[in-house]
Amino acid sequence: MEIGNLIKQGRDIAEGHARELLGLDQDISQQRMKICMKCPLYKSNLGGQCNPALYLNPETGDVSNVKKDGYFKGCGCRLGAKTRLAGSHCPALKW
Ligand code: SF4
Question: 83 CA to middle of ligand 1, Å?
Fold first, then answer.
């Protein structure tokens, strides 16, 4: 990953956690969390996490622990923070 992308990713993580601490952007977070909580990649640890050990085929709903065509890897993000960032997106394009 390029240094510029690493810096942006670090800023996004910090911003998402700050917004979570301050209780900002509840509406968009709740809408996205409803989708995440029904997703097979959702893990309840850390207040909700996108499982980075699994891959999801969003068209079939199938889950794999190995990379395959048409499958998207969980991002590993804490969803309580990530879902508050307007410019963030689900790695499986569900939101
Ligand atoms: S971010 Fe996407 S892939 Fe990850 S748990 Fe939420 S809906 Fe599932």
Answer: 10
Which residues form the domain of 43? 3-82
Into how many domains does the chain fold? 1
Residue 93 falls inside a structural domain: no
Q: Is the CB of 16 under 6 A from ligand 1?
A: no
25: in domain: yes
Assess if residue 74 is contained within a domain. yes
Question: Could you tell me the CA-to-CA distances from 86 to 72, 79, 94 in Å, in that order?
Answer: 21, 13, 14
**Cβ-proximal residues to 81 (8 Å cutoff; 6+ apart), any chain:** 13, 16, 17, 19, 20
Q: For residue range 60-69, what is the model confidence (pLDDT) as tens digits? A: 999 999 999 9
Minimum CA distance residue for ligand 1 atom 7 = 36
The pTM of this model reads 0.90
pLDDT single digits (tens) 44-86: 988 899 999 999 999 999 999 999 999 999 999 999 999 999 9
Residue 77 Cβ inside 6 Å of ligand 1? The answer reads no
